[in-house]
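re: ur question from yesterday

yeah so i grabbed the chain u mentioned. its 175 aa long if i counted rite. heres the sequnce exactly as i have it in my notes:
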Amino acid sequence: MRFVNFYPPYLGAGIRVMFIAPDWSTIKVRLALNWFNRNLFSTQFGGSLYAMCDPFFVIILMRQLGADYTVWDKAATIQFLRPGRGPVTATFHIPPETIDKIRTLADRGEKLEPVFQVEVVDDERQVIAQVEKRLWVRKKDLTPHPGSFGATPPPSPDETSGEGGGAGGGEGGLW
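ran it thru and got these structure tokens back, copy pasting raw so excuse formatting
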């Protein structure tokens, strides 16, 4: 997984994966402040702060659930709370009981939209930004469709309209 450190947007922005738990439940990422990601005010560029948070909840969930599940990013928000004047870190974690709940509901055929939050903190543990990620999770159709390589496509707009019940709709909470 450390190959992500060589992904050009991360390499140029100074984003580094610092830690991956052996069970893939936790990933810690660091963003240095350098001339590549410094904004007009000599603080962390907001796009770099978001980029450091982009894929990691998806990666954790994909690794935890395994190949029989499809996990996509669906939505994200970021709130900038104070300027990042130095290096910052974010620690992504999904507890085992949350993974178990997602797996159980997906195994029942439900389309899920779990929401996860992470704080971006500086070296003094001050919160610089808060990021919320909404994912889309579904058990894969085990009968592959032509051209799909067995993957479930991302949700269509009518699937995500919020109509109907189930764990995928509604506001607030994990679901």
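noticed a couple things. Residues 143 and 149 are 10 Å apart (CA to CA). also The chain is about 20% helix and 30% strand.
anyway ttyl
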